[in-house]
Amino acid sequence: MRCEQCGNEEAVIQLTTVVDSEMQILHLCEACAAKQGVQTGAAPGTEPLADFLAQIGKSVGEGAAASGRCPSCGLTPAQLKQTGRMGCADCYAHFDVHLRGLLRRLHGATQHVGKVAVTANPGEADRKARAESLRRSLRRAVEAEDFEHAAALRDEIRRLESSE
How far apart, in whole angstroms, are the C-alpha atoms of residue 6 and residue 78? Predict the structure, then answer.
């Protein structure tokens, strides 16, 4: 993706600004970003982010070259390795094979599940979260054919749901 200001260089910075309650996103090259007052480039190893980028470099190696550009935004594996940023939501699916292990190590999972919404009654949210957790455990118990444990989990789910 080209810089939206000069159009000459490859955009490596995404600058998000809010002006009069309106969000504006600019994709800029390093020179144009510096003109906007954005500090670019840090000495390698001076920030915790350096370790993260190194891991991306390992994960998105030669195998990613076969994947080519993201069909939506055109991000290349080399750009991903250089910036450590996805170009769009489709990049996660496109580079999935190469990023799965990295995401599992960083986040403990490969799917984003979001945050729990704050409700007027926090006790209700806790009950629902507990019931959902028990349902997942129940599915695992049934798959493992541990029917005694599954029955106990089923009963616990019923108790939680009847108290709502």
Answer: 22
Rounded CA-CA distance 18/64 in Å is 35
- Can you tell me whether residue 155 is helix, strand or coil? helix
Instruction: Say how far apart CA 14 and CA 2 lie, in whole Å.
Output: 11
Q: CA dihedral defined by 38, 43, 45, 51, rounded to 10 degrees?
A: 40
Q: Are 11 and 2 in contact, with CB atoms under 8 Å apart? A: yes
- Tokens 């007027």, residue located: 120
Cβ–Cβ under 8 Å, residues 38 and 17: no
pLDDT in tens, 96-113: 777 777 767 666 666 666
Question: Residue 116, exposed/middle/buried by CB under 10 A (0-12, 13-18, 19+)?
Answer: exposed
The residue written with tokens 């019923």 in the block is 158
Question: What digits encode the pLDDT tens for the residues 150-163?
Answer: 999 999 999 888 87
The position carrying tokens 């994709």 is 27
